[in-house]
Write a structure and sequence with these properties.
Layout: E1 3-8, H1 15-26, E2 30-35, H2 38-45, H3 53-62, E3 68-71, H4 79-85, E4 89-92, H5 102-105, E5 110-113, H6 124-130
Parallel strand pairs: 1-2, 1-4, 2-3, 4-5
Length: about 140
């Protein structure tokens, strides 16, 4: 067991995120969580997150599950942070795909897809629809 890397937006932090992070932490001795930059969320998801990147990082950090929580890099080079962190395992959510080129660049890294936690109830898009938006309490579901 060793270093585990997991990544996500973590907007409207909810019990599904807690399950994801706990499962990821159980895979190794150190969990590094990378929170997506606002500009990357806009580019990939086609919308801005309701909560800013610093707030999302702080909330994930406050859970006390990860050994380290940091912001990703702006731009499209998702492999840069993988090279920097050097994980033995990358934990993916059930609805996440690895970045293109990951397995070719890092064949030694094990990819593990984590189990969903009641995806019909706990999915960030459900909370985004039902909350007033920026400034709302994204931790109310936790």
């Amino acid at each position: 067991m060793g270093r585990v890397l997991s990544c996500g937006t973590f907007d409207h932090l909810h019990p599904g995120h807690l399950s994801f992070l706990r499962q990821a932490a159980a895979l190794g001795t150190e969990l590094v969580v990378v929170v997506a930059r606002d500009e990357n969320v806009r580019r990939i998801k086609g919308r801005r997150p309701d909560h800013g990147e610093d707030e999302r990082r702080t909330r994930v950090e406050a859970l006390g599950i990860a050994s380290q929580v940091r912001l990703g890099y702006p731009g499209m080079d998702f492999l840069k942070i993988v090279a920097e962190i050097q994980p033995q395992i990358i934990a993916l959510g059930y609805d996440q795909q690895p970045p293109p080129g990951l397995q070719e660049a890092f064949p030694q890294i094990q990819l593990v897809v984590l189990k969903p936690y009641y995806p019909e109830k706990y999915k960030s898009s459900f909370f985004r629809i039902s909350t007033p938006g920026p400034g709302s309490d994204g931790l109310s579901a936790v």
